[in-house]
Amino acid sequence: MGAKSSELMITTPSEREIVMTREFNAPRHLVFEAHTSCDHMSRWWGPRKYEVVGCEIDFRPGGKWRIVHRGPDGEEYAFHGEFREIVPPERIVRTFEFEGFPGSVSVETLTLEEHDGKTTFTGKSVYKTVEERDGMLASGMSEGATETMERLAEYLEVLRAGAVG
Amino acid sequence: MGASADVLDVRFGALADPTRRAILARLAKGEATVSDLAAPFTMSQPAITKHLKVLERAGLISRSRDAQRRPCRLRAEAIKEVAEWAEGYRQFWDESYERLDEYLDELKRKESGHGRKEQ
Question: Which pLDDT belongs to residue B59?
């Protein structure tokens, strides 16, 4: 853990997309499996201080999913969507809607590639409009963003990554 | 602090281009002239100038008026606003995936304990 390769990269390759890339030190069938049920998802979904208090996952094409978690302030946040495509152990396409920002549905394509027992995860979210994407970036997921220049430096790393990719 | 939605729209629009992101990454290291910036690209100076205008309109860079070479510099404040905007999103997933790391370790242990499952 903490290795550079496990850093989360977020890029915005076009106006309506957000792409996240990260490496996991596990074979992809496990990374895939971790996305397939409530037993798994409730163990890692969301920031640490949030507890998953509700979960339904009907893991099949056309099946629905919904996850609710509760923050330290007692506030609950819910997310839901539908599975569009499932190709074990390499791809999941699902819709994603944060209920705090209703009507803004994105389509997420999660792609897993394995190499030497490690898995590169790519999550591409495509929004219907630029406004919706920016709304998601700004939504209640935010845990009081701080103003340090450190964050700026991190973001510049993101820009640099975007410039390379 | 914080920028209005309109301003952010323009900023994200300006960022949604690989050449412009590369220009910003270059400017993060210090100010530069148009010819400095054009050098790494197979692009004419007028084409770079066009990108600079988009970045300038979005308030992401500034260009000095006086000097003839008109060096460009990053407007750290504007970048910071965009960074703050994106921060919540990054934090959500970053922390989720850290937890997933730990959970995967657990799954791996379980799997090796019970013999390998089918691929």
Answer: 87
Q: How many CA atoms lie within 13 Å of A116's alpha carbon, on the beta-carbon side?
A: 2
Helix (H, G, I), strand (E, B) or coil at A71: coil
Dmax (CA) for chain A in angstroms is 44
Using 50 as the pLDDT threshold, list the residues of chain B that sit under it. Answer: 1, 117-119
Facing residue for A136 by CB, picked from B22, B76, B89: B89
Q: Which residues of chain A have pLDDT under 50?
A: 1-3, 139-160, 163-165
**CB pair distance less than 8 Å for B15 and A30:** no
| b/e sequence A87-126, b meaning 16+ C-beta within 10 Å | eebeebbbbbbbebbeebbbbbbbbbebeeebbbbebbbe
Residue A6 and residue B21: Cβ atoms within 8 Å?
Answer: no
Cβ atoms of residues A55 and A36 within 8 Å:
no
Which ipTM was obtained for this model? 0.71
Q: Is A118 on the interface with B (CB under 8 A)?
A: no
Q: Is B86 in contact with A155 (Cβ distance < 8 A)?
A: yes
Closest to A33 (Cα-Cα) out of B98, B107, B116: B107
A18: which strand partners?
A125
Among the partner residues A31, A143, A155, nearest to B83 by beta-carbon distance:
A155
CA distance A127 to B17: 17
* Contact residues on chain B for A147, CB-CB shorter than 8 A: 1, 80, 84
- Answer whether A152 sits within 8 Å of B89, measured CB to CB: no
Distance separating alpha carbons of residues A75 and B109, to the nearest angstrom: 34
